[in-house]
Amino acid sequence: LTANGHQPQTTPLMPNRLIHETSPYLLQHARNPVDWFPYVDEAFAEAQRRNVPMLFSIGYSACHWCHVMEHESFEDAEIAGIMNENFVCVKVDREERPDVDLVYMNAVQLMQGRGGWPLHCFALPDGRPFWGGTYFRPEQWKEILIQVAEIYRTRHSDAEAQASAIVSGIAGQSLFEPRNEHIGITKMSFENAFAKLQSQFDTENGGFGHAPKFPVPSVLNWLLQYQQAYKDQSALEMVLLTLRKMAAGGIYDQAGGGFARYSTDAGWKVPHFEKMLYDNAQLVSLYCDAFKISGDRRFRNVAEETLAFIDRELTSPEGVFYSSLDADSEGGEGFFYTWTLPGFEEALGPYSDLMAEYFGVGKEGLWEYERNILLRPHDDALFAQRHFLSQDELSALAGKAKKDLLKYRGRRPRPATDDKALTAWNALMIRAYADAGLALGNRKYVERASRAARFILDNMKNPGGGLFRSWKNGQARIEGFLDDHAMMAEALLRLYQATSDEYWLTECTGLAGFILEHFHDPVSGLFFFSKKNVRSFHGTIETFDGAVPSSNSVLAGLFFSLGAFTDNGIFSDAASRMMAQTIAAVQE
Question: What is the pLDDT of residue 7?
Answer without folding.
Answer: 45
